[in-house]
Design goal:
Structural class of chain A: mainly alpha
Number of strands of chain A: 0
Oligomer: homotetramer
CATH class of chain A: Mainly Alpha
Largest sheet of chain A: none
Largest interface: A-B, 51 and 51 residues
Number of domains of chain A: 1
Distance between the termini of chain A: 56 Å
Shape of chain A: elongated
DNA sequence: AATGAATGAGTATTCATTCAT
DNA sequence: GATGAATGAATACTCATTCAT
């Protein structure tokens, strides 16, 4: 389905893939859009749940941020169809995207934001940065990495992009050696 | 059109908005998809052209990067419909996105990449960073800012996001005062 | 439908005439052309089947030829809409006509040809005649009679044309009395 | 044009083939149908005119009938596109066909009918035959030959079908040797 | 609960025709 | 007379959704 896009996939195809009749879909979902939304919501929930379990065992705030990035890319990189839905389909349906942004994504997001805040409090991260904005920027960089991967021929592991991305974001682009001199 | 999405906009609506008959559309575009593609291409071309004129007058590589980010956000922020097309519609049509990525976007992108490389050569930016990857990250951060703006109620100026975004990316998130101690 | 021609009849009209919704048509036929083709094929099949049952009970080869002609004209003459489809619509769609000629019509035709051959073997018909060509000529004469009827105001029975047509074809136009003298 | 059928040929294509602009067509023809009708009429007129010149020089009524058949098939066989229009296109448009049948074709036809009548008067052809009906039958046989040729791969000369067709029609199918015994 | 046949609203595209130049 | 850009009516086909079984 992800291959052709949600719009270009018929309810019949989804039903057949699920091994049920067309009408059965409507016993569990209000309509086609609801099917996409609930599916995305479910997956996101399990991502968050599984992610939290791991992140809670990570002590250092900086490591949590690193781990968050790795998990995010690993989850998406594990299933290209899924990645396609999240990176491409989700943002097409603006209504869906808005709702998702305001519910699940916000929750997902708030964890990243809190890690940044904690890292600030513990002195690892500059206090001049707005946690929310910084989280957005980090998220955007990861998002771009994921979208690039989906649009590419996927001959590399998506999660391998986590480390270099965090290097730039944590340490910045500026050359301090030069700047110091 | 941007409000409802390209798919949900009929050719008749577009024709009426353009003040021509339905059939006239097909004198200038092969089909509905071609209409979207050519429109996006044209706009991107003019963005690049206008952008280059300004960037060429900017001496410092770091300033060029700053200016690039500002121009990118200013262009998109100037017309919310346009921003919607670029941030939402474009990436829905995967074929279109791929083509766009491989033609116009690559060109647009290569400028940013070259500015980073120049900044590296002149010592402003760490030589350990891959210009291509760094450009991707910067672009991703800007992209996220733009998408957020489109999905928001747009009660702030998009280009105002350029400065704080560049602060994080250029200087990094890490607190050096603390790190130094 | 036959009145206005197949092309000038919309699928909606056909659906309404059949008492079903437009989309229902496409559950049973691939497209509009397929509808015409399958309809023609079905009718031809039943013509052949019913015809054979009668012809098998006819002993004399000459009588079989007569009966064949009568049945052909009687079938077409029984339903002017049907006749219209066969005489007019069928031969418009060249692809359809070719396919029909090479499948159903060939079968239909081969029976007539075999009757002529049998009649030759039993001495009723001149051995110098090519069965295939003679069948074509007979068929052409019947075809013209049918087409004429369709284009006329149909104030006579089409099958009444069978006898005089066969008189000319079997006995020839030449006046033997005169020729003999 | 004959290849794809008249309906599937656009006025633009016809205009281009004629080396004029689309609109120019409408200076000489009322509409697309009128174009087909006038073209067919013109060609038929020249056929009749040229045919008459030849037939008038043919003394024997039987030979005239033979010549008529030869000319008919030779004319159609000379240009497969033309044959296609006459055998396929013409009878699709029922209105056109009716008009043609009642004007040009009737005239064309009346000549054949008159030759048969003359042949009857001079004793060559059985007086029991209706000239009109006999002409129809002869015409039908020729028509079938032409249609077959159009639908075939045309690897034989159409006019070669004239002689065997006339043999059947003039002398009949019945074996007189046998019948006499 | 499950089915899947039937529905019918919705739309991109074509092309004969017009008419200002 | 000639042009050809612009027109807009007309239609096959799809597919989300329903509901009788």
């Amino acid at each position: 389905m992800a291959r052709n896009g949600f719009d270009r996939t018929t309810v019949s195809q989804i039903a057949k893939a699920a091994g049920v009749a067309d009408g059965t879909i409507y016993l569990y979902f209000q309509n086609k859009d609801d099917l996409l939304q609930k599916t995305i919501d479910d997956i996101t929930d399990s991502f968050i749940q599984e992610g939290l379990a791991i992140l809670e065992r990570t002590a250092s705030p900086i490591d949590r941020i690193r781990k968050f990035a790795e998990l995010h890319l690993a989850n998406l990189g594990a299933d290209e169809n899924l990645a396609c839905i999240f990176q491409i389909e989700l943002r097409h349906n603006m209504r869906l995207m808005r709702e998702f942004s305001q519910k699940k994504l916000r929750k997902y997001f708030s964890y990243l934001e809190s890690y940044i805040r904690q890292a600030q409090e513990e002195g690892y991260i500059r206090k001049s940065l707005t946690p929310w904005l910084t989280a957005k920027i980090l998220f955007g960089a990861l998002d771009e990495a994921a979208t690039n991967w989906v649009l590419s021929n996927r001959d590399y592991k998506l999660e391998d992009m986590a480390a270099p991305t965090l290097d730039v974001l944590l340490n910045g682009m500026v050359d301090r050696t030069y700047a110091a001199s």
